Amino acid sequence: MQRSKILVTGGTGQVGFEVARALNVLGEVVAPTRAELDLNDAKAVRAFLENETPEVIVNPAAYTAVDKAESEAEANWQLNAELPKLLADYAAIHRIPLVHFSTDYVYPGDGVTAWSETSNTNPTNAYGCAKLAGDQAVMNALDGVVDHYILRTSWVYSARGNNFMKTMLRLARDKPALTVVDDQIGAPTSARLLASIVLLILLKRPESGVYHAVPNGSTSWKEFAQQIFSQALEADEKLALTPNDVSGITTSNYPTPASRPLNSRLNVTKLERALGIILPSWESELALTLKEYLEN
Ligand SMILES: NC(=O)C1=CN([C@@H]2O[C@H](COP(=O)(O)OP(=O)(O)OC[C@H]3O[C@@H](n4cnc5c(N)ncnc54)[C@H](OP(=O)(O)O)[C@@H]3O)[C@@H](O)[C@H]2O)C=CC1
Ligand SMILES: Cc1cn([C@H]2C[C@H](O)[C@@H](COP(=O)(O)OP(=O)(O)O[C@H]3O[C@@H](C)C(=O)[C@@H](O)[C@H]3O)O2)c(=O)[nH]c1=O
Ligand SMILES: [Mg+2]
């Protein structure tokens, strides 16, 4: 395979950082920072594309502040709905593949069975609504035209950026006890796993469409916090609490501007079959990311 020029948006984000470094084996990665390219500026994005002429686009950039998205309607819509449409339109004209990222928050969150890629969507918050519009724009522009992959993931964390793992460790350094929501169920997903998945997809080029991209297993935010603390303590981290000091609360007792789905379980059979792999457990991925974070 020839080396191609790959545009990675949001290269300073959790997923963008890992994707940019993983895709270096496939070609020249171009990953502009916010200072180099404001993704809110559609004209600037079009000019950048015409100038750089990428041969592959990967789009992990997004507006990910779920609560702020309720009031910051314009920025949420621009990044999560308009930008994917603009990139997909470019990909259609130039017949280049596009990998886009989406979220568990496009699903309504009721019931207890895992969502499949064909489940009905029905987002419960502004972030989820805009992300769904982005997914639909990508499908509308690229279905039957060129390879495109919409990776729906959940609860992303990494050694860098803002995420639940780092927040919990920060709180645990001086708080003797914590309360964490225990009625939202999903799969914590490491950014490094997503980077491996993107690499495999670009190499294997399975059928285009929506794929769930999360590790195996599921948990609550409370149990995720407890697992973070038990693994950190095992690695000799000094914490002011133990996993037993984390108590569960319901979502209704943790009021936030955006409503969040209770059931975020995503079935991963489609991705595993398409790539011929068995995805790792969320606990084993946490161990790898935690090690990287604690060593730095
Ligand atoms: N985080 C999560 O828990 C989940 C994320 N996802 C999806 O996965 C994908 C990756 O998420 P994640 O890596 O966590 O996101 P981050 O919030 O870590 O990164 C977002 C990236 O987008 C960039 N960006 C945002 N607005 C602009 C702008 N106006 N101009 C230029 N750059 C901009 C940010 O730049 P800067 O660093 O300058 O802010 C950053 O590089 C997204 O599509 C998200 O919707 C899905 C499920 C869960
Ligand atoms: C900090 C904290 C959070 N929580 C709860 C709030 C929330 O329900 C849950 C997770 O908090 P966060 O702020 O990380 O949640 P949030 O930023 O909404 O996470 C979501 O981000 C977007 C981008 C996605 O696409 C989703 O998959 C999901 O990862 O934990 C507690 O119960 N106690 C705490 O001390
Ligand atoms: Mg968040």
Structural overview:
- The chain has 296 residues and is α/β, with parallel strands linked by helices.
- Helices cover 40% and strands 15% of the residues.
- It has nine helices and twelve strands.
- The strands form four sheets. A six-stranded parallel beta sheet has the order 2-1-3-4-5-10, with helices on both faces. Strands 6-9 form a two-stranded parallel sheet.
- α3 runs parallel beside α4 (126-142) and α5 crosses α7.
- The model has no long low-confidence stretch (mean pLDDT 97).
- It binds NADPH dihydro-nicotinamide-adenine-dinucleotide phosphate, dtdp-4-keto-L-rhamnose (TDO) and magnesium ion (MG).
- Residues 10, 12-16, 34, 38-40, 60-64, 79, 101, 103, 131, 153-156, 161 line the site of NADPH dihydro-nicotinamide-adenine-dinucleotide phosphate.
- Pathway: Carbohydrate biosynthesis; dTDP-L-rhamnose biosynthesis.
- Residues 5-293 form the RmlD-like substrate binding domain.
- Catalyzes the reduction of dTDP-6-deoxy-L-lyxo-4-hexulose to yield dTDP-L-rhamnose.
